[in-house]
Amino acid sequence: MTNQTSSAPASASGWQYWRGLSGWNYYFLLKFGLLWTGYLNFHALDNLVFMAFLLFPIPNRNLHRLRHWLALPVGFALFWQDTWLPGPQSLVSQGSQIAGFSSDYILDLITRFINWQMVGAAFVLLVAWLFLSQWLRVTVFVVAIMLWLNVLTLTGPVISLWPAGQNAAATVTATGGGADNTVARASTGGALVSGDIPAQDGPPTTANLNAWLSSFYASEAKRQAPLPASLPADAQPFELLVINICSLAWSDVEATGLMNHPLWSHFDIVFKNFNAGTSYSGPAAIRLLRASCGQPSHKNLYQPAGEACYLFDNLEKLGFTQHLMMDHNGLFGDFLKEVRDFGGMKAPLMNQADLPVNLLSFDGSPVYNDTAVLNRWLEQEGRDNTKSSATFFNMLPLHDGNHFPGNSKPADYKLRAQKLFDELDAFLTQIEKENRRVMVVIVPEHGAALQGDRMQVSGLRDIPSPAITHVPVGVKFVGMKAPHQGSAIEIDQPSSFLAISELVARSVDGKNFVADRVDWDALTKNLPQTAPVSENANAVVIQYQGKPYVRLSGGDWVPYPQ
Questions:
Q1: How far apart are CA 519 and CA 484, in angstroms?
Q2: What is the number of H-type helices and E-type strands within the chain?
Q3: What is the rounded distance in angstroms from the CA atom of residue 561 to the CA atom of residue 163?
């Protein structure tokens, strides 16, 4: 990127300086190309200031050279800012976790950032620039584009003109039903909005999206799906088993061709439009353990919540024995500590001694065989069927970077997913044969980002995109006198953890297990709806008027590239 005119004599005309961006022209042209394809979040004004800094005439040769040496780190930082790569805040906050990755896993992650198609396109652009710059004043062309992006557009950068732009007139597809989920028509755009979800009025400007997000969190702070204060005398004991799977979204299931796996035929209820709210394990587990209250912001996850929010703690108050089970040690990222400190999980970790190792995690720690873990739970819980219990089981076999012992190469995701689905299918079949009274709830933490998108490479989850947070949730009642017949009941409304708490609250007395007839419509009707809002420490993604928008590090909202 060295300026070819940096050695120009002091007597050179001012126009020669204004046409002499040289290598920096390629820098800006490359940015324009990436912007057009949706691979950049272009900060047009920042780039215009940088260009003005490069163009300002400096007759002194030494100062001229110094400017371009200073421009190198500034240009690199600006290019990084314009990409969707994790920012410095994210890297600093997760630095200790990245340090725990194995060298093979880090190398694998680095290679994913190399997009050979983009490298080839950049090379073609370089050759074209070198050829055309001999006859054309490329600087004039570059400056004209930059001015068009800023000065000629009164409303700011022309985001809507690029392929990543979205049509603000789209409508929200989620609708509610029943008296508790009335539907109100938004005042603009004709959007239909559930009564559980704040109305999405006005165009998708940064001010409007910020205001809507604030109203969402204010509304969620008032919502609860609490458990009853006590159980009736004729309550029936049963076991609640909540299986929290790391790295499994609908997009991952579809990508691996497992949509028709026999596992899905076991479920009585399937949530088709469930939002996990985050793309990291610790926050995901906390949100699930606090399912009885509305969705808090990421920051408030790490603040004390009201007593009514802690699902497992309140089940214990109703006489359920609390259990904690994992197929890993829970040390990475202080996962176990966060589950205890912020999720209210008090139970000791179930004994992991002598469990066979299935995989090694991305940090080299063991991931135990899930069939063995589930069998240990069956043995321990089978000792007393006269008491109710509630078990939280966190599973890690699908996490990115896991590998088989003796092989440092990351294990194939589809192979691991197939094995896990087979194991869960066999487990459900086993407890069905034993006719145990178990309510099984499978809730993934987040997806694996198996395919990646324009914002993030495969496996990167710094931004909680819709493809990562849209997860499959299934519920199975085993040991019922009158089990559900036919295909699973599908819940299509936008849902999140509050719906799970409500479903548990409606089932907590255990009477459905002994009823001659179960009113499945009453059990599943009018479950709480929750707008798709997902958040990590430095990124927020929302659905507004049917389109996804993203905000990074408190900046402006932009349409999520599709």
A1: 10
A2: 20, 15
A3: 8
Which helix (H) or strand (E) element contains residue 321? Answer: strand 321-326
Chain-centre distance for alpha carbon 67:
41
Partnered with residue 321 across adjacent β-strands are 389
Cα-based torsion angle of the residue sequence 197, 202, 204, 209 in order, rounded to the nearest 10 degrees? -50
Tell me what pLDDT residue 142 has. Answer: 74
| 530: nearest Cα among 283, 276, 163 | 276
Tokens of 451: 């395919």
Report the alpha-carbon distance of residue 176 to residue 493 in Å, rounded: 7
Q: Which residues of the chain have pLDDT under 50?
A: 1-20, 152-193
In terms of Cβ atoms closer than 10 Å to its own Cβ (0-12, 13-18, 19+), residue 256 is: buried
At 333 the pLDDT is 86
**What's residue 161's pLDDT?**
37
Residue 497 to residue 291: CA distance in whole angstroms = 5
Question: Which pLDDT value is given to residue 150?
Answer: 64
Q: Token pair 């007759």 is at which residue?
A: 59
State how beta strands 357-360 and 192-194 pair.
unpaired
Cβ–Cβ under 8 Å, residues 83 and 40: yes
pLDDT at 357: 96
Tokens matching residue 155: 């409303």
The angle at the Cα of 481, spanning 476 to 482, to the nearest 5 degrees, equals 70
* Structure token digits, residue 210: 């910020």
CA distances from 36 to 30, 82, 153, 181, 337 (A): 10, 13, 17, 41, 44
Cα 295 from Cα 82, distance rounded (Å): 30
Count, residues in the chain: 562
At 153 the pLDDT is 44
Q: Which residues, in sequence order, are CB contacts of 300 under 8 Å at separation 6+? A: none
What pLDDT is recorded for position 10? Answer: 40
CA quadruple 300, 302, 304, 307: dihedral positive or negative? positive
The token pair at 465 is 């995109």
- pLDDT for position 239: 96
Handedness of CA 522, 524, 528, 531 (dihedral sign): negative
Report pLDDT for 41.
63
pTM above 0.85, yes or no: no
Q: What is the pLDDT of residue 534?
A: 98
pLDDT for the residue 470: 98
| Interior/surface letters 494-507, b for 16+ CB within 10 angstroms, e for the rest | bbbbbbbbbbbbeb
The per-residue pLDDT for 42 is: 63
Residue 551: what pLDDT? 92
The SS3 call for residue 450 is coil
Residue with tokens 């044969």: 433
β partners of residue 559 = 549
Joined together, the tokens standing for residue 193 give 């909005």
